[in-house]
């Protein structure tokens, strides 16, 4: 999202993340944008590593995307010479 001049489109995000619907990609894009523009926070600086994960513990049934009782989160962490810096968490 940040290394392109005009950011990323919902369609580009849908393709990059392999999401099934445009509406889901559009919703994610707006949540990510709102988290990035929060005026109370300083921007993460330097090298930033980003990943996604499901939070909710071990449950029976479907695994990964669409698992019942789990929440998708994005995590962004500053990298300071191999040591973690400030962290941002976004619940999707």
Description:
The protein is α+β, with helices and mostly antiparallel strands and 92 residues long. The chain has 2 domains: 1-41, no CATH class; 42-92, no CATH class. It is 25% helix and 30% strand. Strand 2 (71-80) and strand 3 form a beta hairpin. The chain has helices spanning 10-17, 22-36, and strands at 47-55, 71-80, 83-91. The longest helix is centred in the first third of the chain and has 15 residues, at 22-36. Strands 1-2-3 form a 3-stranded antiparallel β-sheet, with helices on one face.
| H and E string | HHEEE
Whole-number mean pLDDT: 79
End-to-end CA span: 16 Å
- Biggest sheet statistics: 3 strands, antiparallel
Task: Report the principal-axis shape.
Answer: globular
Number of domains: 2
Backbone CA Rg: 15 Å
Low-confidence stretches: none
**Neighbour order of strands in the largest sheet:** 1-2-3
Helicity range: 25-40%
**Proportion in β-strands:** 25-35%
Find the structural class using helix and strand composition. Answer: alpha+beta
How many helices in DSSP terms?
Answer: 2
Number of strands: 3
Lay out the secondary structure.
Layout: H1 10-17, H2 22-36, E1 47-55, E2 71-80, E3 83-91
Antiparallel strand pairs: 1-2, 2-3
Helix pairs in contact: 1-2
């Amino acid at each position: 999202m940040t290394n392109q001049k005009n950011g990323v489109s919902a369609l580009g995000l849908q393709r990059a993340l392999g999401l099934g619907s445009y509406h889901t990609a559009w919703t994610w894009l707006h949540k990510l944008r709102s988290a990035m523009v929060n005026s109370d926070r300083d921007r993460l600086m330097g090298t930033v590593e980003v990943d996604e994960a499901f939070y909710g513990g071990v449950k029976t049934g479907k695994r990964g995307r669409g698992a019942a009782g789990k929440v998708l989160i994005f995590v962004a962490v500053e990298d300071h010479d191999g040591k973690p810096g400030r962290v941002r968490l976004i619940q999707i």
